């Protein structure tokens, strides 16, 4: 008899975005003539920029020639990409990170989920609520206990410290789903908390490229002491349209350690390399060449234009909702707009209303956690025409 990992019975049958997709598919099957607009999952709609496409084409041609063919990629990523990351994302910002602290991967979703492989089951884990569902679901799969840290308008979406000390803390800023941020001072308080309690912060910075205000940290390592307490996750998905290409990277500083029950102290950097080299065979060479081109001066100029385009969508959505009298959050340093649902509707009631009456798809706030009930998330990743049309349809409902 095959025994199931019973923790899977605790997480429900469907991942949030799979459940949204299921309901949308059901609706489209029943109403094939209706034009549905998705502002649901944060998937990009604008083409990958020319500098990246050119690099991908060139790398593809290399694969057609025995002299330039590349087989398995290094487990930690190609040096050309690691050096580009290091210079642009850290050295140029005055942050001291070493090349062997950078691990290129197939995206922040995998890494934020997989990082639990190297952490003991006994760790008490704190997760902001609402949150990207991967944090809670993967920790439940592993059988860990989770403490939720509510983030609501009442605390300005700034999580309070847990009542009981915790071992691991997930922070995502700019935040998915609320679109809110922490200032340097607010993030410093968390770094200080982790230093004091010897906890580990798992800092998801997937939306870093959307920061527009000066006092918002782009990396947790801007905060003194953070290298002693934090792992940081970065993504090319939202920065450069790589949702379908898959590339990200994770910083595991060499200062970080964890203890065993025998009292040994081991390096998390070493353990993460051990984990990756066993379970992961590297991000595709072609994709890594594409990611490298994101850091060229042309690449940077071109991705900035796409980010501006999405942020203009964010402004259109935010203004549209506010004209309806809805309170909104986010959308300034992040491509997500978080809004209170109208007339006290539950998140899923509002989802059904929008889908059935306006053929607009968003993401129910309650899907991100219990503190998300009564909220709803729109993404700015649509194309302009659809975004304007979606806002028009929502306005027509009221
Ligand atoms: C989201 O919509 O929250 C994201 O697109 C999901 C993801 O990045 O995996």
Molecular structure report:
This protein is of the alpha/beta class. The protein folds into two domains: about 5-45 and about 300-395, Aspartate Aminotransferase, domain 1 (Alpha-Beta Complex), CATH 3.90.1150; about 50-295, Type I PLP-dependent aspartate aminotransferase-like (Major domain) (Aspartate Aminotransferase, domain 2, 3-Layer(aba) Sandwich). Helices cover about 35% and strands about 15% of the residues. The chain has helices spanning about 15-30, 50-65, 80-90, 110-115, 135-140, 185-195, 235-240, 270-280, 285-295, 295-325, 345-360, 385-395, and strands spanning about 35-40, 100-105, 125-130, 145-150, 170, 200-205, 230-235, 250, 255-260, 265, 330, 335-340, 360, 365, 375-380. The protein has a seven-stranded mixed beta sheet with strand order 2-8-7-6-5-3-4, sandwiched between helices. A four-stranded antiparallel beta sheet has the order 11-12-15-14. A two-stranded parallel sheet has the order 1-13.
């Amino acid at each position: 008899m095959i025994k199931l990992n019973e923790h899977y019975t605790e997480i429900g049958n469907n991942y949030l975005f799979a459940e949204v997709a299921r309901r949308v598919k059901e609706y489209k099957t029943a109403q094939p003539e209706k034009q549905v607009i998705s502002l649901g999952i944060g998937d990009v709609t604008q083409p990958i920029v020319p500098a990246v496409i050119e690099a991908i084409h060139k790398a593809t041609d290399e694969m057609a020639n025995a002299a330039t063919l590349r087989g398995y990629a290094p487990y930690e990523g190609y040096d050309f990409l690691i050096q580009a990351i290091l210079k642009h994302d850290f050295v140029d910002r005055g942050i001291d990170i070493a090349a062997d602290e950078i691990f290129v991967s197939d995206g922040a979703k995998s890494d934020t989920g997989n990082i639990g492989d190297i952490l003991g089951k006994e760790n008490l884990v704190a997760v902001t609520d609402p949150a990207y569902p991967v944090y809670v679901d993967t920790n439940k799969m592993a059988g860990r206990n989770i403490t939720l840290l509510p983030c609501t308008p009442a605390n300005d979406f700034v999580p309070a410290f847990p009542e009981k000390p915790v071992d691991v803390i997930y922070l995502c800023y700019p935040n998915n789903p609320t679109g809110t941020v922490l200032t340097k001072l607010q993030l410093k308080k968390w770094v200080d908390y982790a230093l004091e309690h010897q906890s580990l912060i798992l800092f998801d910075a997937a939306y870093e490229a959307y920061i527009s205000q000066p006092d918002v940290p782009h990396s947790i390592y801007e905060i003194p002491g953070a290298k002693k307490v934090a792992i940081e996750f970065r993504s090319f998905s939202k920065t450069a349209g790589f949702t379908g290409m898959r590339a990200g990277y994770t910083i595991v500083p060499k200062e970080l350690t964890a203890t065993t029950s025998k009292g040994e102290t081991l390096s998390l950097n070493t353990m993460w390399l051990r984990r990756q080299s066993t379970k992961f065979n590297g991000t595709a060479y072609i994709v890594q060449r594409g990611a490298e081109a994101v850091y060229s001066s042309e690449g940077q100029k071109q991705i900035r234009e796409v980010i501006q385009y999405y942020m203009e969508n964010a402004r259109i959505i935010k203004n549209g909702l506010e004209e309806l009298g809805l309170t909104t959050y986010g959308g300034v340093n992040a491509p997500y707009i978080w809004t209170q649902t109208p007339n006290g509707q539950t998140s899923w009631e509002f989802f059904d209303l929008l889908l059935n009456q306006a053929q607009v798809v968003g993401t129910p706030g309650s899907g991100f956690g219990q503190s998300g009930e009564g909220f709803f998330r729109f993404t700015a990743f649509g194309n302009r025409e659809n975004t304007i049309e979606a806002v028009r349809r929502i306005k027509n409902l009221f």
